[in-house]
Amino acid sequence: MGRLVDGKWLTTDLGADERGRFVRRAAKFRGRVSSGSPFEPATGRYHLYVSAACGWSHRVLMTRQLLGLESCLPVTFADAFMGEQGWVFPASETTPTEPHEPSGLVPPGFVPPGFVPHQGPLFELYVRHQADYTGRVSVPVLWDKQRSCIVTNESADLVQDLNSAFAQFSSDPVAASKLDLYPTGEQQRIEAMILANYGPINNGVYRAGFAGNQSAHEEAVRAVP
Ligand SMILES: N[C@@H](CCC(=O)N[C@@H](CS)C(=O)NCC(=O)O)C(=O)O
Questions:
Q1: Superfamily of structural domain 3-184
Q2: In this predicted structure, what is the pLDDT of residue 96?
């Protein structure tokens, strides 16, 4: 695992503390897609970068599919193996629409103005967003093709925005309108459940997998319920 320091990619693993314990830092980019914000809800304007090997990407992909947003929000998958360069997008995944998707709001082959199809390491996108960025380079990422910048790299915010700001662009608007995944009356319960799962399970798996030595690994594994 590497990270960026002042826009330069370092391949040394800097994810663990001095005792080898994995330390998760908060996501750095927390833009929200909503009416009246710099990131207006729109179809075809945003692009999603994920990895099939990433649990945080899964919740975004599941929400996107449940709400019928495949055409509105194209996705590119990084290679499932994270090597020296971190997440890398293979050359075959450069088109902004998925070939298997039914034709929808974004016609196949449509390239929005300013969109540079991405292949190569994900860290290049981070540097394009901020030339002197220091920090982790993670998926999922929501990219704004209009402004050529990262909107967010925090899946918790992204799933909420898919539900509140993107659902209007669903390929099945009637079904999407009936499927409120974050209903007002349930939000407290949902947040409590997210919090209860986050430490021991969601992040617990990472504490085990990214531990810097055997004892930190064993400590983390035992803490997973
Ligand atoms: N808070 C972020 C966490 C995302 C995250 O940790 N992604 C992992 C993959 S599952 C990643 O890309 N890690 C690379 C790194 O931290 O260097 C979210 O939920 O979106």
A1: Glutaredoxin (3.40.30.10)
A2: 41
